[in-house]
Amino acid sequence: MPLDEYRRKRDFTKTPEPSGDRTPPNRTTGRGLRFCVQKHLATQLHYDLRLEHHGVLLSWAVPKGPSLDPSIKRLAMQVEDHPIAYGDFEGVIPEGYGAGVVMVWDTGIWTPEVDDIDAALAKGDLKFTLDGYKLKGSWVLVRTRGYGSREGAGRSWLLIKHRDEWAGDVDITTFAPLSVKSELDFPDILAADAPAVWHSGRAASSASLKRFAHLIDQATAIKTAREPATAPRRRAAARKTAAPDTAPQASRSRARSGKTRTAQGAKKR
Ligand code: MN
After folding, report:
1. What separation in Å is there between the alpha carbon of 203 and the centre of ligand 1?
2. How far is the CA of 51 from the centre of ligand 1 (A)?
């Protein structure tokens, strides 16, 4: 079972992450294979590249994130396969494995540049094309001879951009840092998520979320600004008007989420 490791690491009574129990939708309709990159603020900030293959998402954790510069090789540690539904997951993992905040940083379709994906993976050389909001063009994942601990042996790859019209020296992770799903940044995702688990004060005692004290402060400030502390009746009214208030902010941040032609033009240089 390809998702055994994924499930073993998680307690689905405590995490909002999908369990992957649902059968993935039939993808034979020619829409192509899904990919996503999730920006994950956990013990360390990293970017999780996920490629749909055989009903799961093959996954690599890229500590520094993808680079559009073909001369820059980015370490990509292969991690356990994730369920297809994980590709849409954005929110807070309050405790346990991967505790932190997850953002859908990019998403789209990937196309292998090889006939046999399994053979390419076995060989340790997978060339592919991405068609996302932020990442486009030709890329390669090349397996290296281990890295660091023995545990990492065989799981260590390099993610490299091929030279094409989508290559360039724009630092895409800082140029387009926001979610392509919500167009939000981490504090806003935390504020929008607002699980009882951190709002109720339980988070304060959770070691895993203490690391994000600053982020939680920012999220609390965002929530407070949206919901002025007035009489309970007034507060309900304020909540109803919250959506229009947030709309202009979302459009302002659109450029940074990378969902504009401006962003793509700048990338191409
Ligand atoms: Mn991760």
Report:
1. 20
2. 14
Q: Which residue has the tokens 């002025």?
A: 228
Q: How confident is the model at residue 102 (pLDDT cuts 50, 70, 90)?
A: very high
The pLDDT value given to residue 243: 43
Residues with CB under 5 A from ligand 1 (ion): 40, 48
User: What token pair was written down for 226?
Assistant: 């949206």
Ligand 1 centroid distance, CA of 104 (Å)? 11
Domain locations along the chain: 4-268
Closest CA to 202 of 97, 42, 94: 94
Backbone angles phi, psi at 189, to 5 degrees: -65, -40
Number of Cβ within a 10 Å radius of residue 24:
15
Q: How many C-beta atoms surround the C-beta of residue 252 within 10 A? A: 10
Ligand 1 centroid to residue 50 C-alpha, Å: 10
| Range ranked top by mean pLDDT from 8-22, 136-150, 172-186 | 172-186
Written as one string, the DSSP assignment of 154-193 is TTEEEEEE-SSTT--S--HHHHS-S-TTT---HHHHHHHH
Is pLDDT above 80 for 141? yes
Answer whether 0.85 is exceeded by the pTM: no
Q: What angle do CA 186, 193, 41 make, to 5 degrees?
A: 30
Interatomic CA distance for residues 20 and 86, integer angstroms:
8
Distance CA 45, CA 60 (A): 14
Q: Which residue has the tokens 């999220």?
A: 219
**Both tokens assigned to 23:** 């059968």
